[in-house]
Amino acid sequence: MRQTAGTLNRTWLAILGVLVLAAGITGLLQAAGTLQTIAPTPSPGTRVVTGELHPFFAQPWLIALILVIGVLVGVLALWWIIAQIPRKNPAGTYRLQHEGAQGRTSCDPSVLAAAVEEQVNTLPGVVTASALLRGTANEPDLTLKVTINDRTDVRALLRHLETSTLPQLSTTLEAPLYRRRLQIDVSTRTQSTGTVVHSTGTILH
């Protein structure tokens, strides 16, 4: 039910993968001796850098540049770590408006999510259901977690969700679901239906 930084992780891993691949190719070329042909190495005794490096690196602007780069890398690393924290990111109030209508209808996504949960909870074999709406009214995003017992007909459950629950939600929003996620867990608990009424009174002997 919580949203993770999957897209961000894939992007950064792709960048790191390209860098590691480039380093690996460079190492292979160096081991095969091809790198020396492409970029000839200086002969022994030849100075690669002329002059003293200490005055160059002691310049104030270079020290400030290195400091800024270090802070930037630290901020990016901290931002990446914070992005790993799972979050719900629920949707804000949906604003539904018809073409040519003078007014505007606002709908709380939690109300729609509660209606989905109530409907799914009545299905055979469902122990609990939890729904969360994200996105906008034009591109709604539904995450549905359903816990069932071990005797539930999963195919019948999926068929009911595809033919009834999800289409009814799309009809209410007047927009197709842009993205939907379904998580099904199996529990040894039995389906709980009905309401428990607690009574009080006096026992007469």
Secondary structural class: alpha+beta
Quaternary structure state of the chains depicted: single chain
Largest sheet: spatial strand order: 3-4-5
Low-confidence stretches: 194-205
Indicate the overall shape.
Answer: elongated
Describe the 3D structure.
With 205 residues, this protein is of the alpha+beta class. The chain has two domains: 6-40 and 58-83, no CATH class; 94-187, GMP Synthetase, Chain A, domain 3, CATH 3.30.300. It is built from six helices and five strands. The strands form two sheets. It has a three-stranded mixed β-sheet with strand order 3-4-5. The protein has a two-stranded antiparallel sheet with strand order 1-2. The longest helix is centred in the N-terminal third of the chain and has 27 residues, at 6-32. The two termini are 54 Å apart. Residues 194-205 have low confidence and may be disordered.
Which features characterize this protein?
single chain, 205 residues, alpha+beta, GMP Synthetase, Chain A, domain 3, 3-stranded mixed β-sheet, two-stranded antiparallel sheet, 6 helices, disordered C terminus, membrane, transmembrane helix, Alkaline shock response membrane anchor protein AmaP
